[in-house]
Amino acid sequence: MRLLKNLGILGLATATVLSSCTIQKRTAMPGYHVEWRTAHTVKHDAKATQEEKVNESFAITPVEKSAPVVNAEQAALVQTFESESASPVSANSVETAKATEVKTASKSIEVVATSTVAKQSKVEQKASAQMKKLEKKASKIAKKGSSSDDAILYYILAFFIPFLAVGLVTNWEVKPVVINILLCCLCGIPGIIHAFIVVSRNV
Q1: DSSP 106-174
Q2: What CA–CA distance (Å, rounded) separates 77 from 69?
Q3: Which of 3, 17, 107, 183 could form a disulfide with 190 if both were Cys (CB 3.0 to 4.6 A apart)?
Q4: What does the pLDDT look like over 51-76, one tens digit per residue?
Q5: pLDDT one-digit tens code per residue, 114-161
Q6: Which residues make beta-bridge pairs with 23?
Q7: CA atoms within 13 A on the CB side of 136
C-alpha cells in the first residue's frame, strides 16, 4: 500500500512538473530547452489567445463602409483604431503650431530687445549731452567767479599798493612798474589811477 501511495504521489508530482513547463529541442545547439510556466506567462498566453480570436473574427467578418456596424464592441474597436491612426497627424499639427508660436514669441522678444536697446542708447546720449552742458556752465561760472574775485583783489591792491598790483597783473614787466613808482612819488594819486587803468586792461 505504501508503495502504491508513493508511486501515486510521484506520478502526480511528475504530471504537475510536466504540465508547468514546456520542453523543446534546440535547433542551433544540442540539447533541450525547458521553459517554466508561471502566472505571468499563463496570463500572457491567455491575452495572446484572446487577441488571436479577435483578429480572426475581424478577418472573417470585415466591416464594409456602407454597411452599418452590428456589434457595439466592434464599433468601439473601429473607433479606437481610427483615433489611433488619426492621432499622429494631430500630434504633428500640434507640434507645428507650437513651433510657430515659439518662433513668433522669439521674434517679438527680439523686437522688444532691440527697441529697448535703442531707447537706452538715446537716453544715454541725451544724458551725456546734458552732462557736458552742465560741465561747461559750471566751468564758465567758476571762471567768472575766479576772475571777478581776482579783479576785486587787484583793485584793492591798486588802491593801497599800486606798484604791486601793476607788477602782478603785468607779470612784473619793467616799464609799467617803473612808471607806476614814479607816479606814486607825485602825491600817490596819479599812481593809483595808473594802477586802476593797468588792472582794467589786463584783467
Answers
A1: HHHHHHHHHHHHHHHHHHHHHHHHHHHHHHHHHHHHHHHHHHHHHHHHHHHHHHH-HHHHHHHHTTS-H
A2: 11
A3: 183
A4: 666 566 555 444 444 444 446 666 67
A5: 888 888 888 888 888 888 888 888 777 766 656 677 889 999 999 999
A6: 34
A7: 6
Residue 164 burial class via C-beta count within 10 angstroms: exposed 0-12, middle 13-18, buried 19 and up: middle
Return the bridge partners of 33, or none.
Answer: 24
| Residue labelled with grid coordinates 552742458 | 133
Grid coordinates representing 190 are 596819479
What does the domain layout of the chain look like in residue ranges?
1-62
Distance set, CA 37 to CA 21, 32, 132 (Å): 5, 16, 93
Q: What is the pTM of this model?
A: 0.32
Please count the other Cβ atoms lying within 10 Å of the Cβ belonging to residue 132. 10
Strand partners, 36: 21
